[in-house]
Amino acid sequence: MRQRTFVITSGPDELKDLSLTLDQMAGEVRLREQQLENANKELESFNYSVSHDLRAPLRAIAGFSRMILKKEAERFDEETRRHFQVIMDNVENMGRIIDDLLAFSRLGRQEVTKVALDMEALIRDVWQELMAIHPDRKMSLAIGKMPTASGDQTLIRQVYGNLLGNAVKFTQGRNPAMIETGCIAGDEGTVYYVRDNGIGFDMKYHDVLFGVFKRLHTNEEYEGTGIGLAIVQRIIHRHGGRIWAEGEVDKGATFYFTIPTQQG
User: Measured between alpha carbons, how far is 210 from 230 in angstroms, rounded to an integer?
Assistant: First the structure.
């Protein structure tokens, strides 16, 4: 086969102009990166401040509600007592939202310390805690063979805590609830997954699953703050990996994620 040789000739002026253009582009990229970094820091600071400042009025609402109920409960009718209970339940839920918001904002600043992770042992540890919280549920967990991974133990444990916790939550009504964890080989290396036989979801809503406060179900159907999967996604991104999900309504869901050995 005949080889073809291409020769590009440019004069000094053209090369100078090209060099200036590349320098300008690099400068604009650095400027955009700095602006994005500053915006993220401001957003995290705002998130932390708002979440922190909300605690005081919430404590006041809860405290005065309990005090009024304790002092006047006998004088209230059943409907009035129920209203006060609704107030306190909502205060408690708001407290959980604030805790999750603070956790979400801290993830942007928290250092990722990678160590060798025994994924199977980590999953068993998380599962034991979930079993203790739900002693009356009939649930089974299958743990597949997994190689040692590299990641921040506290953060990856939180990933499995959230994903397995969601699997437990969304398999309510299944008898038994069947949950499976494991890994497969993918183009990006090892792909970890958590699969369940729960209510699943419509894939057209896939893009909103990992957004803050993006929920596919009401709090009356399934409790939650709408931040858990956003936290999981941020943890995986901090490890240089990615996360995605597949599901079908009433046929369960599977969440996949990667955690590359090298920081991305």
Answer: 5
